[in-house]
Amino acid sequence: MKTASEPCVWQSIRETAQHHVNSEPMLGSFLYATILNHEHFEDAVSYHLAGKLDFGSLRGMQLRDIIDTAFKGDPKICEAIQADIIAVRDRDAAVDCCLVPLLYLKGIHALATYRVANWLWKEGRHLLAVHLQNLMSEGFAVDIHPAATIGKGILMDHATSVVIGETAVVGDNVSMLHEVTLGGTGKQTGDRHPKVRSGVLLGAGAKVLGNVEIGEGAKIGAGSVVLTNVPAHCTYAGVPATLVGKPDSAEPSLDMNHGIDI
Ligand SMILES: CC(C)(COP(=O)(O)OP(=O)(O)OC[C@H]1O[C@@H](n2cnc3c(N)ncnc32)[C@H](O)[C@@H]1OP(=O)(O)O)[C@@H](O)C(=O)NCCC(=O)NCCS
Predict the structure, then answer these.
(1) pLDDT, tens digit (0-9, with 9 covering 90-100), for 173-209
(2) Do 135 and 175 lie in a common domain?
(3) Domain check: are 136 and 166 in the same one?
(4) Closest residue to atom 46 of ligand 1, CA basis
(5) Where does a domain end: 141, 166, 194?
(6) Least enclosed by CB within 10 Å: which of 5, 59, 185, 189?
(7) What CATH number has the domain bearing residue 205?
(8) 236, 247 in Cβ contact below 8 A?
(9) Mutate to test the pocket of ligand 1, among 209, 211, 224, 230 (most ligand atoms within 8 A of CB)
(10) Total structural domains in the chain?
(11) How far is the CA of 227 from the centre of ligand 1 (A)?
């Protein structure tokens, strides 16, 4: 695990961008357009995300308007995006700053899109929320239903093929790798998706199916198929997943230790 959280994410992003304007001048106009021309974090996120989602069905200006409206409607959205960026900076061994997640990592782009879509969903604007879900899925290969409930400080590492269903719940400070599914079994209706509590680490390709609970601080091995509740602070792995050990820390999502820890 890398060191503690940044007190001021936006200041740190701007300083890193300014550094790279000097060290990599070819990216200067891109860094000014995305970061340095903006006074506030919110403005930079809405500018960049709108550009990422502009595939033609909604123009960049329309998307920016939607995103800005959501940010004004609920300031906690941007707090959550900042917590997600810090989560990447602190837990992803390949990242050492807050600029890279904001500019380049589609886990952050997908989560930010979900957070806007979730706000629209709660405002009753379901079709526009699903429209954003579709743009997220086509653009980032991540499919999160706008009605899902997701906390803050989420690391979605690599992110490709992550699927999170309509009634899924994900607590704070959860880490998940690519190809994780929080899906239904196809046999239940209504509240039919997993409830993942805080501090959980979900390995690459883990399939959690049905309205099962993954208890706080649990760890799920890569490629597992989880069909039952998993008690807090236990490690489950296999197909179907069974108890194989206990994590050696209270929140395995934070230290990203992928071992079984028997
Ligand atoms: C639906 C499903 C979970 C199994 O339902 P089911 O047929 O009622 O089976 P059960 O849950 O009763 O399980 C029967 C046995 O098969 C095992 N099993 C179930 N699904 C399994 C799977 N995917 N892989 C390996 N074993 C599996 C169970 O552990 C159980 O073993 P046991 O009898 O030794 O305890 C499974 O068929 C499945 O994976 N469906 C696809 C769901 C999906 O893709 N959802 C994603 C939506 S986004």
Answers:
(1) 999 999 999 999 999 999 999 999 999 999 999 999 9
(2) no
(3) no
(4) 183
(5) 141
(6) 189
(7) 2.160.10.10
(8) no
(9) 209
(10) 2
(11) 7
Question: Is residue 37 located within the same domain as residue 124?
Answer: yes
Query: Where do runs of H (alpha helix) occur along the chain?
Result: 9-23, 28-31, 41-53, 60-73, 76-91, 99-104, 106-122, 126-140, 252-255
Best probe residue, ligand 1, of 227, 236, 239 (max atoms within 8 Å of C-beta): 227
pLDDT tens-digit series, residues 21-73: 999 999 999 999 999 999 999 999 999 999 999 999 999 999 999 999 999 99
The residues near 240 (Cβ < 8 Å, ≥ 6 apart) are: 224, 225, 226, 227, 228
Pocket of ligand 1 (CB under 6 A): 163, 165, 181, 183-187, 209, 225, 227, 239-240
For residues 224 and 251, membership in a common domain is answered with yes
Give 183-249 as a DSSP string: E--SS--SS-S-EE-TT-EE-TT-EEESS-EE-TT-EE-TT-EE-S-B-TT-EEETTTTEEEE--SS
Same domain, 179 and 215: yes
Using CA positions, which residue lies closest to atom 5 of ligand 1? Answer: 185
Quickly tell me which residue has 């959501």 as its tokens. Answer: 70
- Same domain for 160 and 105, yes or no, is no
Q: Where is the domain boundary, 141, 159, 193?
A: 141
Ligand 1 center to 205 CA (angstroms): 16
Looking at ligand 1, which residue's alpha carbon is closest to its atom 4?
A: 185
Residues 25 and 152 in one domain: no
Residue range(s) defining the domain that contains residue 253: 148-262
